[in-house]
Amino acid sequence: MTFIVRHCWYSCSPESSIKSIFGESIRVWNLLARKSRYWVKGLTSANVEKCTPLIVASKEGHFDVVEYLVTTCKCNVEQTGHIDIDNNTIEDVTPLWSAAACGHLIIVKFLIERGADPDHTTSSNSTPLRSVCFVGHYDVVKFLIEKEADLEIANK
Asked: What confidence tens digit (pLDDT) does each residue in 98-116 have?
């Protein structure tokens, strides 16, 4: 299992490797359906190069992959990892933070419905609300405020 994850992740950047892995969703789902739950959970929760498939899928806006990883594979919606946005590495982001920063409202709504904490902070104390305010996706800002995201949490 570790070899498969490392092979997929090291062959190219995390974002493009996830696209190549999950771009053929049906083929991947058929493969995963034949494996044990333990094996699937290990693969889909693997933190390779400080990122996970769920975080990358959330960042890239792949709702079908996010839904599959959370619903079928039982991935933890509070897992953390590192992502690059505009040549800056953001450490300890959650899938919700990634989706919010990139303006993927449908994924933000789904993750909140599945128990994601709208006030979970990164290593620099950034929240999903702060990230989306910085970028300016009004619909995501409005939704997070409606879900009572804390307006007072400041970055470090």
From this structure: 999 999 999 999 999 999 9
Helix (H) or strand (E) holding 85: strand 81-85
Three-state DSSP state, 101: helix
Phi, psi dihedral angles at 61 (to 5 degrees): 80, 25
Spatial distance between the Cα atoms of 88 and 91, rounded to a whole number of angstroms: 10
Instruction: Answer whether residue 7 is part of any domain.
Output: yes
- Say how many Å lie between the first and final Cα of the chain, rounded: 38
The CATH number covering residue 108 comes to: 1.25.40.20
pLDDT tens-place string over residues 39-93: 666 666 555 557 888 998 999 899 988 998 899 888 899 999 998 888 888 899 9
Domain assignment present for residue 151? The answer is: no
- pTM over 0.70? The answer is yes
Angle subtended at Cα 78 by Cα 34 and Cα 45, rounded to the nearest 5 degrees: 30
Which residue pairs, CB below 8 angstroms and at least 24 apart, start in 1-6? 1/39, 1/42, 1/43, 1/46, 2/46, 4/43, 5/43, 5/46, 5/48, 6/48
